[in-house]
């Protein structure tokens, strides 16, 4: 399986200038290619092929006085920028013809030089290398210092140099990582994700929601107010923009570190992990949108999925319509309603349940049943449902009258 390994780069002043030149040239080639195809489409001309476009905006452009500076950077960087444009067009055409699943994609858009996030990619043809001294050698840029936090598992096939909005530089290597099965364990776990607690496991463990964005709100508000007072176009405003970006970067880094540690722990300690297939996009359109985005459920579930595949664990998502909260995990009795303000409840069989722990136990049971029956994971079932929906299939639960006490939800409720 292919993975990305990212490391922090520390280029010197000359290397930062060379990287800025490479970022700009890649952006110009991308925009020139997009403009050429847009003009051809508006003029009713045939679609320009990839080879003809490369010849026009790279090979011939280098001999033109207004684009002669394209020769100052590696040709691979320019070719990869054009490859990104071609990929964007293919994805757009596949989306509008129905060959690509998921939400519809729009046509490629021009890249702005005012965008604070820039990236260029070097493939093996560029002959980038890692020197004996541990530096990253990039063509026409030099040997850049790298902070190696861990060793690469194999020879990288490409490296992407990224400059984020906070002004930091990173090298993202694509490597082929072999599967490394861990020693088998008997434990299996169901995970119920929420907002009051980030995750509740079927064994009764409750992991608090760190709420990184909420905790940094005061610092972010102060930085944003300082930015709003700066005159547009001034150097002080540019500095204030970087301060805001750094504050957001700290939140992102803290959230990513938390989800990595928790997902690794769950995969290491359990032979199988089951979660609910949440509709994050739908929840992000409610009044809890900020809290949903702050939780970062999608990134966490994605980490669980790829780590389970790499380390030989079982991972499955149960259907989002499964009534995990209002089903008794002891006798299987399903309650007619379960408002969000009910955090504990007693089943007619006499069992008293914590709402979240009971849901996690039901997720575990349903996940085991799904895997044992050999049914398809929730993600594949959803893709088939989307295909049926395009043909008029009924993929949603039947309509039912809503209970009066379920009309709203409480802030912070899971």
Characterization of the model:
This protein is an alpha+beta fold. The chain is built from 11 helices and 14 strands. The protein has helices spanning 13-42, 50-59, 75-96, 212-215, 217-228, 235-269, 280-283, 289-295, 297-310, 355-373, 378-390; strands spanning 2-10, 118-123, 129-130, 136-138, 142-147, 158-163, 169-176, 188-193, 197-201, 206-208, 272-276, 314-318, 344-346, 352-354. It is elongated, with a radius of gyration of 26 Å. The two termini are 34 Å apart.
Number of helices: 11
Distance between the termini: 34 Å
Strand fraction band? 15-25%
The Cα radius of gyration reads 26 Å
List the strand order in the largest sheet. 2-6-7-1-5-4-3
Sequence of secondary-structure elements:
EHHHEEEEEEEEEHHHEHHHEEEHH
User: Tell me about the biggest sheet?
Assistant: 7 strands, antiparallel
Oligomer: single chain
Task: Count the E strands.
Answer: 14
Fraction in helix: 40-55%
Shape: elongated
Q: Are there runs of 5+ residues with pLDDT below 50, and where?
A: 381-414
Class from secondary-structure proportions: alpha+beta
Mean pLDDT: 89
Question: What attributes characterize this protein structure?
Answer:
five-stranded mixed sheet; 414 residues; disordered C terminus; elongated; seven-stranded antiparallel sheet; alpha+beta; 41% helix
Summed up:
With 414 residues, this protein is an alpha+beta fold. The chain has eleven helices and 14 strands. Helix content is 41%, strand content 17%.
Write the layout of secondary structure elements.
Elements: E1 2-10, H1 13-42, H2 50-59, H3 75-96, E2 118-123, E3 129-130, E4 136-138, E5 142-147, E6 158-163, E7 169-176, E8 188-193, E9 197-201, E10 206-208, H4 212-215, H5 217-228, H6 235-269, E11 272-276, H7 280-283, H8 289-295, H9 297-310, E12 314-318, E13 344-346, E14 352-354, H10 355-373, H11 378-390
Parallel strand pairs: 8-11, 11-12
Antiparallel strand pairs: 1-5, 1-7, 2-6, 3-4, 4-5, 6-7, 8-9, 9-10, 13-14
Helix pairs in contact: 1-2, 1-3, 2-3, 5-6, 6-9
């Amino acid at each position: 399986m292919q993975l990305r390994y990212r490391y922090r780069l520390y280029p010197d002043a000359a290397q930062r200038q060379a990287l800025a030149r490479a970022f700009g040239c890649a952006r110009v080639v991308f925009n020139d290619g997009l403009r050429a195809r847009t003009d051809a489409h508006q003029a009713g001309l045939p679609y320009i092929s990839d080879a003809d476009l490369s010849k026009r905006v790279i090979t011939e452009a280098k001999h033109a006085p207004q684009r002669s500076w394209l020769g100052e950077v590696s040709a691979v960087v320019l070719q990869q920028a054009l490859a990104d444009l071609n990929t964007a067009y293919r994805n757009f055409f596949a989306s509008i013809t129905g060959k690509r699943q998921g939400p519809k994609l729009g046509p490629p858009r021009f890249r702005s030089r005012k965008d604070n996030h820039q990236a260029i990619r070097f493939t093996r043809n560029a002959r980038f290398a890692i020197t004996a001294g541990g530096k990253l050698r990039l063509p026409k840029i030099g040997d850049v210092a790298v902070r190696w936090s861990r060793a690469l598992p194999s020879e990288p096939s490409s490296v992407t140099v990224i400059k984020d909005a906070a002004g930091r530089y990173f090298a993202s290597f694509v490597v082929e990582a072999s599967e490394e099965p861990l020693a088998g364990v008997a434990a299996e776990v169901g995970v119920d994700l929420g907002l009051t607690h980030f995750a509740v496991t079927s064994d009764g463990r409750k992991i608090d929601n760190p709420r990184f964005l909420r905790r940094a709100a005061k610092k972010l508000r102060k930085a944003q107010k300082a930015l709003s007072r700066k005159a547009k176009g001034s150097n002080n405003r540019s500095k204030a923009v970087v301060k805001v970006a750094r504050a957001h970067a700290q939140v992102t880094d803290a959230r990513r570190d938390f989800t990595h540690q928790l997902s690794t722990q769950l995969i290491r300690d359990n032979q199988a992990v089951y979660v609910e297939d949440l509709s994050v996009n739908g929840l992000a359109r409610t009044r809890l949108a900020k809290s949903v985005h702050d939780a970062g459920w999608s990134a966490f579930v994605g980490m669980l999925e790829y780590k389970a595949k790499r380390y030989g664990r079982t991972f499955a998502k149960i259907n989002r319509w499964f009534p995990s909260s209002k089903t008794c995990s002891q006798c299987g009795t399903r309650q007619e309603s379960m408002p969000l303000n009910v955090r504990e409840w007693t089943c007619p069989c006499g069992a008293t349940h914590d709402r979240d722990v009971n849901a996690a136990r039901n997720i575990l049971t349903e996940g085991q049943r799904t895997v044992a029956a050999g049914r398809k994971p929730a993600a594949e079932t959803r893709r088939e449902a989307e295909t049926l929906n395009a043909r008029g299939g009924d993929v949603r639960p039947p309509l039912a009258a809503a209970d009066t006490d379920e009309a709203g939800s409480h802030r912070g409720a899971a």
